[in-house]
Amino acid sequence: MKQIDTKAALESAAKVFAEAFHNYPIYKFCFPDEIERKRVLLLLFQASVKYISEFAYYDGDENDPRAILLINSPTAKGPDAWQAIGLLFDYGYRLPLRRTLKMLSIFKEFERARIKSPHWYLQAIAVSPTQQGTGIGTRTLQFARSLAGDLPICLETSTSANAKFYLGHGYAQQKQFVTLNGKGTEVWTFVSR
After folding, report:
1. For the chain, counts of helices (H) and of strands (E)
2. Mean pLDDT (the chain, rounded)
3. CB contact set of 11 (below 8 Å; sequence gap of 6+)
4. Could you tell me the pLDDT band of residue 167, with boundaries at 50, 70 and 90?
5. I need a surface site. Which of 33, 52, 113, 145 has the fewest CB within 10 A?
6. How far is it between the farthest Cα atoms of the chain?
7. Cα dihedral sign for 32, 33, 34, 39?
8. Pairing between β-strand 120-127 and β-strand 64-72 as defined by DSSP bridges
9. Could you tell me the strand order of the sheet in which 153-157 lies?
């Protein structure tokens, strides 16, 4: 995998991220309008690479990536939930107050669900829809594992298909809950063994 370190790679990777996560339950819940969701996902990815993710990688060609990995080491000092939402504002996107509070609550729930001991945090694996089922997700997860060394990797997902994927690759389920006190989307949290 190669680091996302050029504007072309960032823009191409943002498109893969937006396509891969377009129907992801949490984003559908927070952004029901499809056009708005696509725009937010493009901005969110670019903000994540620039300000949140310590390491951002892609697999494939810079102009046509097959998979994306965003991951943070235990020493990463990423922004808190308020700062993460603020990054969207920096990119010119204004979230309505109700959705801002909804997203903040969900981000806080994710933070509380993670293990407290030192760990790597897998923010996202995004596989191009045309590449899903080819093994690229497995190779990307293996690459993440190689970065983490002996430390565990924590992650969350809101799809049962992804939950099965992580279970099948040796991750232990930590928690399963529905965000926003049962009014949001189902989430599974995992830690590598």
Report:
1. 8, 7
2. 88
3. none
4. very high
5. 33
6. 42
7. negative
8. antiparallel
9. 2-3, 55-61, 64-72, 120-127, 153-157, 186-192, 171-178
pLDDT at position 47, please?
79
For strands 55-61 and 2-3, give the pairing.
Answer: antiparallel
What tokens appear for 21 in the block? 């996560």
- The one-letter amino acid code at 68 reads I
CB 73 within 8 A of CB 120: yes
Q: Is 104 exposed, middle or buried (0-12, 13-18, 19+ CB in 10 A)?
A: middle
- What domains sit in the chain, N to C, each tagged with a CATH number? 2-192 (3.40.630.30)
User: Residue 28 pairs with which residues in a beta bridge?
Assistant: none
Q: Which one-letter amino acid corresponds to residue 122?
A: L
- Counting Cβ atoms within 10 Å, is residue 97 exposed (0-12), middle (13-18) or buried (19+)? exposed
CB contact set of 118 (below 8 Å; sequence gap of 6+): 74, 151
